[in-house]
Specification:
21 strands; 4 domains; alpha/beta; binds adenosine-5'-diphosphate; binds magnesium ion; Rossmann fold; 667 residues; OB fold (Dihydrolipoamide Acetyltransferase, E2P)
């Protein structure tokens, strides 16, 4: 329903709402408060405490003309509460001088109390008048300047009186799980009688939102429980013999993962398995063993990597591991002629294993008898891209691998349909990486120390600061590269960033592996998968700008050989929260724990591709819900699908709402 259909909302107000992206009553009802003011805890100026927030009802008497104090523009207002006088001050908000006129107000801000002279610093405020009689818990909406709180409050009140959106959760399930009626939840989130009531409403609304999201994911991914058509003739003995060809013995975790895969391939349903294991847990060897099961049975296999650097590395590994099979390579950087020849050979069945990047997913890449797909660092691929693999014919079995352990809550949503195998251990001889936080005054000591390491034949990574766009990051990498070369002339540096041509990247990476380069200055291009056992030093500039999971990934690039490795987190930040985050990283090497922590500290947006993160669940970002709401939603979706409740309705609504999910990529 259009907003203007509500009584009291005309064209002018509708324009104000449009500035907030609200044009319908449904959108207005879903515009949740950012906060609540507790009118029962209004303060008397006599009781306010220095440095704490206070909510004060008072009279504005006079606004002083704008003054300039040093670099600051200062606006000051004289306020009065009964017999007590105090002030409000705004720094660098000159427009406040125009905005305020004498009258009754509610001020909310931080208290300063110097020698019994009380002021509120940069407070927010609302006029108290006939339009604005505030009682109980009052919602505060996230607004742009110029749009008053009372306008939204009033609009919401009217919208709640009209028809509110219906729940997508089938009625039998709402009853079974005793869910609060959705209409009631909408009312209570905007106008709660208590914080407890607000909390219950937030949980209900989060469950509703996640229900649609999880259902949409389920529908995008399609039905995965399909009967198998490929028959694998490979035997357990042959698999055991293959394992023994590696220069190391498999860890218990690797062995268990191989057994899981073997079991799936011999079962009557197709495999869709997520293999997760921390960086360095040896997922590649497991994947290779899976590929062996396919080619030994006479089928083709694919090994998909998210970047060309990784694809090239894996191509070398595949050729080494499968000297008696035909291995092909297909990536964006291949020439048109190479691509054509590979595609033809594939279609004729003359290639057994294809290694490549996204290029493999193109429609004209066809296989003669594809049976097994490995998708490395799968979180880099969108959900829909993973589906393209299944459409390559031959009903392939799919093994997706992830080193970024994503929080359990999110994995429920994204991988809800997958079987999961976790490698819990790492090869025994691994020594934990020593992690330190380095402030600028210690950079020089660190350089001296690194020089010593390089002299011993060790190699190092220098990761440049995180910058939002590719180009900025490339520039930062180039600058750091030049700087380090002059600072440490005896170290041979190489440069690696996403703006370089694939050929250059490959050349640099190979030179680093061959030890013709001692240290690599890089952007996060190196984040995933790259494996250089002699690299024992990881230096990360501006570490406070990276997410914990990402730092953990970067740290995982070292500590892969027999020597002790070091990770240096450089930071110029003094912020206690930033340092606290880095300390968490120092104290644990458990990637799963770090991922959970990241989710807690930075929200789910970080785990999703940047493009979509703004849109994703934006409506509930102000809600304070617990993970229980997500688990409940997951249970409800499972049951709705199983019992085929409201199937068509859910399909339509969920897909419409989360259309854009098709392109979501996990970070
Ligand atoms: P990830 O799980 O991060 O993909 P990799 O598969 O790249 O890890 O393995 C990391 C390194 O550990 C590689 O150099 C690999 O050869 C080695 N490796 C794998 N499994 C074992 C093992 N069981 N014992 C010793 N080294 C191993
Ligand atoms: Mg890997």
């Amino acid at each position: 329903m259009k907003l203007t259909e509500l009584r009291g909302i005309g064209e002018r107000r509708a324009k104000d709402f449009a500035k907030l992206g609200i044009t319908t009553t449904e959108q207005l009802i879903r515009y949740y408060p950012r906060n609540y003011l507790d009118m029962t805890s209004r303060s008397s100026v006599r009781d306010v405490v220095h440095n704490e927030m206070a909510l004060v009802a008072c009279k504005l008497v006079y606004v002083e003309p704008l003054r300039t104090k040093g670099k600051h523009k200062v606006v000051r207002a004289l306020l009065e509460q009964g017999p007590d006088n105090f002030t409000a001050v705004w720094f660098n908000q000159p427009y406040m001088a125009e905005k305020l006129t004498p009258g009754d107000y509610l001020f909310y801000g931080r208290v300063q109390n110097y020698y019994d002279r009380i002021s509120l610093v940069n407070p927010t405020f609302e006029r108290l008048d006939a339009n604005n009689r505030l009682k109980g818990l009052v919602p505060v909406y996230p607004l742009r300047s110029g749009i008053p709180q009372w306008l939204v409050r009033d609009g919401v009140r009217r919208a709640l009186g009209a028809e509110t959106p219906a729940s997508l959760i089938p009625v039998p399930l709402q009853q079974k799980y005793r869910l609060m009626p959705l209409r009631e939840a909408f009312r209570k989130i905007h106008l709660p009688a208590s914080m407890r009531e607000m909390q219950a409403a937030a949980e209900r609304l989060a469950a509703e939102e996640y229900f649609a999201l999880i259902a949409a994911f389920r529908l995008i991914k399609g039905d995965r429980t399909q009967a198998r058509t490929n028959r694998y003739s490979v035997t357990a003995e042959e698999v055991g013999a293959f394992e023994r060809r590696f220069p190391f013995t498999f860890t218990d975790g690797q062995k268990a993962a191989v057994r899981d895969i073997f079991g799936s391939l011999k079962s009557p349903v197709r495999m869709n398995r997520l293999l997760q294991g921390d960086v360095g847990s040896g997922k590649t060897a497991v994947a290779l063993t899976g590929i062996f099961m396919a080619v030994k049975s006479g089928y083709q296999a694919v090994y998909l990597s998210p970047t060309e650097v990784l694809a090239a590395q894996n191509y070398a590994v595949l050729r080494r591991t499968f000297p008696d099979y035909r291995v092909g390579y297909l990536a964006g950087a291949s020439t048109a002629k190479e691509k054509r020849e590979i595609k033809e050979a594939l279609a004729r069945g003359e290639i057994d294993i294809l290694c490549g990047t996204h290029a493999v997913l193109q429609a004209d890449v066809r296989f003669a008898r594809l049976a097994f797909c490995v998708c490395d660092e799968q979180h880099r691929f969108g959900v829909a891209q993973r589906n393209l693999l299944s459409e390559k014919g031959g009903d392939p079995d799919i093994l997706v691998m992830s080193a970024t352990p994503i929080p359990r809550t999110l994995s429920l949503i994204f991988y809800g349909d997958l079987d999961v195998t976790t490698i819990p251990d790492k090869p025994a001889e691994r020594i934990p990486v020593s992690t330190s936080i380095i402030p600028p005054r210690k950079y020089d000591d660190m350089f001296v120390w690194i020089r010593g390491e390089v002299r011993k034949g060790r190699q190092a990574y220098f990761v440049c600061p995180k910058i939002e766009d590719d180009e900025g990051e490339a520039t930062a990498a180039e600058e750091l590269y030049e700087k380090l070369r002059t600072q440490l002339p005896e170290i041979r540096f190489g440069l690696l960033h996403g703006r370089m041509r694939e050929k250059e990247k490959d050349a640099t990476m190979s030179a680093f592996k061959r030890k013709e380069i001692d240290a690599l200055v890089a952007t996060t291009v190196i984040e995933v998968g790259v494996d250089v056992p002699d690299a024992t030093v990881m230096v990360i500039y501006d570490a406070d700008r990276f997410g914990l999971s990402q730092l953990h990934q970067l740290r995982g690039r070292v500590g892969r050989g027999a020597e002790k490795s070091y990770c240096f987190l450089l930071t110029e930040s003094n912020s206690e929260t930033a340092l606290e985050r880095l300390r968490i990283l120092r104290s644990t090497s458990d990637g799963f724990a770090l991922a959970e922590k990241d989710l807690e500290l930075r929200g789910s947006g970080d785990f999703l591709g940047t493009r979509q993160s703004g849109k994703f669940l934006s409506e509930i970002k102000n809600l304070r819900y617990t993970t229980e709401a997500i688990f409940l939603a997951k249970k409800l979706v499972d049951e709705a699908f199983e019992r085929r409740l409201d199937a068509d309705k859910i399909r339509l609504a969920a897909m419409e709402k989360y259309e854009s999910l098709k392109d979501v990529v996990l970070n």
